[in-house]
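Retro notes, item 3 of 5
We never archived the inputs for the calcium ion complex last cycle. Fixing that now. Sequence and ligand:
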Amino acid sequence: MLATAAAQDRLKGLLSVTVLQATDLPKADWIGENDNFVEIDLLLAPKPTTDLHIKRTHTVAQDERSQRTQVQYGRNPVWNEKMAFSIPGTHKGPVSLQISVFDEDIHRSEFVAGGAFDLSTANLDKDWMEVKWIDLKDLKDRDGGKICVVCHYIPESMVGYFQKKYNAKAAEVKTKIIQGLVTRATGVATSQINSMVGL
Ligand SMILES: [Ca+2]
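Structure as it came back at the time:
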C-alpha cells in the first residue's frame, strides 16, 4: 500500500507551456473583434488521439490538466502567457497538448480554432525545449490560422530541492512551488524565444 501511494505522489516532471501568439484566426463574430482566449489541455494518453484538433466546448473548471489564458483581441492576438503542468510519476507513455482558441462571450464561449502539439516522441527523462507554429482548424476542418507555442520540459531529477514525495493534497503550496521552479528554469529561455519571434 505504502509503495503504491509513494509512486503516485512522485512527480515525473514539469511541462512549462508558453502561448505566444496566433495569426489569421477565423473571425468569430459578425460585428466587432474576436475576444480570444486559449485553452491548453494536457493529454496523458498512451498514444495521441487522431481527433486532437477539434474541441467543441470550453472546459470551465481550471485544473492541473486544463488551463487557459487571458483574453486578447482581434485576428492576430499576442498572449505571451506561461502556464505549468505537472506530469505524474506514474505516467509511462507520451504526452500531447490539445490547443483550443475560443471567443469569449458572457453566455457561451464559441470555439474558434484548434490544433495539437504532438509531444509523443519527447523524452520525459531529459530536459528539452521546443518552439512550434501549429496549424489550426475550425469546426468544419477548414484552415483556422496558426498559433506559436513554446514547450519546456524539466524532469523531476533536475528539480534539486524539490522533494521526491509529492503531496497531492497540498495543492496550493504545490502550485506555487511549481510556478516558482518553472519561472526560474525557463525564464531566460522564454525571453530569448520572445525576442526571436519579436515580442
Ligand atoms: Ca466575441
